[in-house]
Amino acid sequence: MSKLVINNLHVSVNDKEILKGIDLTVCSNERHALMGPNGNGKSTLLQAIMGNPKYVVTQGSIIFDDQDVLAMEVDERSKVGLFLGMQYPSEISGVTNSDFLRSAINARREKPISLFKFIKEMDKAIQKLEMKPDLAHRFLNDGFSGGEKKRNEIVQMMMLKPQIAMLDEIDSGLDVDALRIVSDAINEIQEETQMGLLIVSHYARFYDYLKPTHAHILVDGKIVMSSDASLVEKVDQNGYEWLEDELHIQLKKEETKQPISLGSCGAKKVA
Is residue 41 within 8 Å of residue 14, measured between CB atoms? Predict the structure, then answer.
């Protein structure tokens, strides 16, 4: 069983502290819903785990299967089994989906995947996500619609088979049919691989499809409440304002989100 353990994590962006002491454990076959108003640190947490250099860890630890994640570069984090489905996937002209995925898969294997097996698995993933048959030969996200980019993130997840997958609003921009298709694919790959999931979304419908085993609310850089899936329903019905009275906290005002890129090197732990 794989386990991702986050302890007292503090993260800053441009010298501004965003995360202020996150404690969270995600294990194989668990589904964690991470909720909270915009601008409170949800995406920051996922980006810091994956190693975006913009997000600087100033305190705390991230341990994955007894390995120090903060000591790893981005590619090393991916190779050990971490995956981030991004809210704003990058477009890369000149690199086909098939070349990108085959290289990523081979980087995780001692022996390269056979061409026959790779084609078979990619065709299966493309069909499952109901994407165009020529996806393998298209440049990575180049000219894709927003919905196609999100589906392509799940194609990558299905092919790479991570131990822990983090999905950052992977449902945004999807219509009702596409949401069901993506959810079915996520459910199928988790059933096959027993991967753990950390899911950021603002929509109860998505969580209804995925059926979280755990739910957390993150406010002003801290997880202020954790429970089971009933917490998702409570937020869907009542929003977040009830937290102010119940926990005696002040909700941080929503901030405008900006597209972010994963970058090419890992964030280092600062002494």
Answer: no
